[in-house]
Automatic annotation (TrEMBL):
Domain Helicase C-terminal: 213-363
Family: Belongs to the helicase family. RecQ subfamily.
Protein name, entry field: DNA helicase RecQ
Species whose genome carries this gene: Pelagovum pacificum
Boundaries of every Rhodanese domain copy: 230-262
Catalytic activity: Couples ATP hydrolysis with the unwinding of duplex DNA by translocating in the 3'-5' direction
UniProt KW keywords: ATP-binding, DNA damage, DNA recombination, DNA repair, DNA-binding, Helicase, Hydrolase, Isomerase, Metal-binding, Nucleotide-binding, Zinc
Domain Helicase ATP-binding residue range list: 24-191
């Protein structure tokens, strides 16, 4: 059957979303495909529809039982024979799936990856006439991602064994994960690749320097009273205190993190799905599988760990296409925290370098000088003409040539053996005779007091923007000490100049919270 009539009659949609038509066609024709589409972009249709265009059974591997059940329910309501074999099944459900298989009625068979571990499952799949394997959340084969599922590594073997085409789907766009998927699922043979629809024009992007984070988040929530939102926090403890603070302001709010009892977590998920205007304050444990279309805002009380995580997390807002807003707070402590998380991790050195790169990409976005949407999408390899809305397009920042203060800062760091943190370096350039300065004789340095023109707040902003541009990095060996990176050298030598944003400097100086 052709795609368009099925799209209308079975799925009830008038037209394809960006990218869907080409992917459906490639998958239906039996090409190996890797489709990278953002969360909410409409990936499931890209294998469900081809499943109906092809003879035989399409096996869908998916990591989340709840998601499988939702899809099976949706398909059945649309009159499509679909079933799931998962550990969550009742006996009747399993018996029903089996009888549909035996009768040759079943079109889509959803399976948890764990099922592939049993030899019986593979033999069964060989017997029932599978014509396509669809892999949802394909980034779960990546050993480095936080969603790694060892059983996903069996999928490549299944594909070889059955000799049928495979269509892999993920929202994770970075090149390394893509390569890992190609290596593990397609044995390194290039599939057709699609990267589409990453722009979410209805989501407004904004960052603010972390100043008084609790007040900033409360003020943001205040302006959106009665709307469903998520606040992401870096720690479990913070989710609890912030949820409490929101409740004290009369919001309906609850916390969510991986340390909670599974029943309590499910209760929060259920409330969030059903209730209007609930705020969930959560760690990243609140994520995959949240399928609420009308989340009106997402705020980050702490900086995410990479540009990919940022994109995934804000992407949960506004799936219904109506306007949604985001606010991401960041500050020097976040940068230090995320850097040390990478440095102290167990990953091999190449991996750590890549992770620093992804963090840099996010910091670049945080400290961007112009349109955030353009910076964000260009990272994913997509170009956009117009901006649906970001804080920098709303109000272009004032820039200034910061070469002189940046050189002062770098020189203060170098002359003190790159052994001190921003606070002490600021005391040196500002000429503050603190006890620490006197003990080390740093008042003798030629850089002592050269930066009196800027206030402490302005200097903090300069240091933060320098860390954001990766001109300086915390030394993993010495707590808090800032070291110069290779990027700083041409500036110090006078070969390059640096432009910084004045607005964040002003903001850091005043003590009012920064809210759009
Ligand atoms: P994801 O890419 O996150 O898996 P889904 O497949 O769940 O996204 O789709 C997200 C939402 O978009 C669903 O509610 C789905 O019904 C809807 N959708 C998908 N394709 C279309 C389309 N062509 N027209 C309208 N709505 C669509
Ligand atoms: Zn913009």
């Amino acid at each position: 059957m052709r795609a368009e009539p099925l799209l209308r009659e079975v799925f009830g949609f008038d037209s394809f979303r960006p990218g869907q038509a080409e992917i459906v066609e490639a998958v239906a024709q039996g090409e190996n495909t890797l489709a990278i589409m953002p969360t909410g972009g409409g990936k499931s249709l890209c294998f469900q529809l081809p499943a109906l265009m092809r003879d035989g059974v399409t096996v869908v591997i998916s990591p989340l039982i709840a998601l499988m059940r939702d899809q099976v329910r949706g398909l059945k309501e649309a009159g499509v024979e679909a079933g799931a074999l998962t550990s969550g099944n009742t006996e009747e459900e399993t018996a029903e799936v089996w009888s549909a298989i035996e009768d040759g009625r079943l079109r889509l068979l959803y399976m948890a990856p764990e099922r592939l571990a049993s030899g019986g499952a593979q033999a069964m799949l060989r017997r029932i006439g599978v014509s396509l394997i669809a892999v949802d959340e394909a980034h779960c084969v990546s050993q480095w991602g936080h969603d790694f599922r060892p059983d996903y590594l069996r999928i490549g073997e299944l594909r070889r064994d059955l000799g049928v085409p495979l269509a892999a789907f993920t929202a994770t766009a970075d090149a390394e994960t893509r390569e890992e998927i190609v290596a593990k699922l397609f044995d390194g043979e290039r599939p057709r690749e699609f990267l589409r629809g990453f722009d979410r024009p209805n989501i407004h992007l904004a960052f603010a320097v972390k100043d008084q984070p609790r007040r900033q988040i409360l003020a943001f929530a205040e302006g959106r009273r009665g709307q469903s939102g998520i606040v992401y926090c870096g720690t479990r403890a913070k989710t609890e205190t912030l949820a409490q603070a929101l409740r004290e302001q009369g919001h309906s709010a609850c916390h969510y993190h991986g340390g909670m009892d599974p029943d309590d977590r499910r209760a929060v998920e259920g409330r969030f799905a059903r209730e209007d205007g609930l705020i969930v304050v959560a760690t990243i444990a609140f994520g995959m599988g949240i399928d609420k279309p009308d989340i009106r805002w997402v705020a980050h009380a702490d900086l995410p760990k990479s540009i990919e995580s940022y994109y995934q997390e804000i992407g949960r807002a506004g799936r219904d296409g109506a306007a949604a807003e985001t606010l991401t707070l960041f500050g020097p402590d976040d940068i230090r925290f995320r850097r040390s998380q990478i440095d102290e991790g167990l990953a091999p050195p190449e991996r750590k370098a890549a992770d620093h790169g992804r963090l840099n990409a996010l910091l670049g976005l945080a400290e961007a000088l112009e349109c955030r949407r353009k910076s964000l999408l260009s990272y994913f390899g997509e170009e956009v003409e117009t901006c649906g809305g970001c804080d920098l397009c709303d109000k272009p920042p004032e820039l200034f040539d910061a070469t002189t203060p940046v050189r002062m800062a770098l020189s203060a760091a170098l002359r003190t053996g790159e052994s001190f943190g921003a606070g002490h370096l600021i005391d040196i350039v500002m000429g503050n005779e603190t006890e620490k300065v006197r003990q080390r004789g740093h008042e003798q340095l030629p850089t002592f007091g050269v930066g009196k023109d800027l206030s402490k707040g302005e200097w903090q902003a300069v240091f933060r923007q320098m860390m954001g541009r990766d001109l300086m990095r915390p030394d993993p060996e010495r707590h808090g000490a800032l070291r110069m990176t290779g990027r700083a050298r041409p500036i110090l030598k006078g070969e390059e100049s640096v432009t910084l944003r004045r607005d964040t400097i002003r903001v850091a100086k005043s003590d009012r919270p920064v809210v759009r």
